Amino acid sequence: MGAESKETFCLVIRSQDHGESDRILTLFSHDHGRCTAIAKGANKSQKRFVNKLEIFSFLKIYYKEPRPGALFFLEEAELHNSFLPLRRSYLNYCCGSVILEAILAGIPEHEPDSNLFSLMLWALHTIEKSKDPRKPVTLFLIRFFNLLGYRPHFSCCTSCGTETQSSSEFSFDPDTGGLLCQSCSGLTEYNKNRISHGTIRLIEDSSDKPLQQLERTGISLLQIQEVTKIFLEYGRQLFQKELSSWKLFNQLSGL
Questions:
Q1: Burial call 48-60: b when 16+ CB within 10 Å, e when fewer
Q2: DSSP states along 179-244
Q3: Low-confidence ranges of the chain (pLDDT < 70)
Q4: What is the number of other CB atoms lying within 10 angstroms of the CB of residue 165?
Q5: pTM over 0.85
Q6: Helix axes 90-106, 134-148, angle to 10 degrees
Q7: Distance between start and end Cα atoms, the chain
Q8: What pLDDT score does 47 carry?
């Protein structure tokens, strides 16, 4: 007896041709987390898959679970949102790519996380309609590391214990995921990853705010620049790889 057909919601993270007619997809699904699927005959399909399997697409899919070590078999897909504006604007595309690369770099296969799935959908929806798509990406990065269990420690200097409520200035240390005061970090490291008190408060407040309230968070250009810079360094340290879309996003934020 063949495997039972199932359904779930997912976002397309990566899509590439396989042979003449098939497509290999990297998906982030509600029920399985990051997974890899094959859509047989997708490039010749006139109904099941046409214009549905591009990156950023939000789908309801019908699939069969594979035997261990094999690919999911995608039978059909219903398109719920193509997020087309993310592919029509260079800035939007770069911002959306930060979201996708975060999943590819930081999330192992087959580890479902409904909170992360909701955060991804929120981020893509907000990028799509935002006047400045850099803002939702900044908030996404703050929440992303929080959900991974790598929330930065911003209450005090990790070396001497000076509290952030003091008048001291601080820099971010990607090795420890915490702050160093100017005295403990040294001038070179302080200038490299300096972080203002306003950005520290933004990160702390945004880490705990309900997702439906997050869009109303006010963010300055300086805060966008500081958050994206320190999380690029933090991501490199944690994932041990270059994050090309994050690096480009920093450049687009004026760094």
A1: bbeebbebbbbbe
A2: EEEHHHH-HHHHHHSEE-HHHHHHHHHHHHS-HHHHTT----HHHHHHHHHHHHHHHHHHH-S--H
A3: 1-3, 46, 189-190, 255
A4: 10
A5: yes
A6: 10
A7: 58
A8: 76
* Integer Cα distance of 15 and 69 in angstroms: 19
Q: Give residue 252's pLDDT.
A: 84
DSSP symbol at 155: E
The alpha helices in the chain, defined as continuous H runs, are: 85-88, 90-106, 114-129, 134-148, 182-185, 187-192, 197-208, 211-214, 221-239, 244-252
Which residue type occupies 175?
Answer: D
The tokens for 221 are 């250009």
**Sign of torsion over alpha carbons 107, 86, 146, 171:** positive
* 72 sits in which H/E element: strand 72-81
Find, among 41, 42, 35, the residue nearest to 68 by Cα. Answer: 35
Give me the amino acid identity at 237: Q
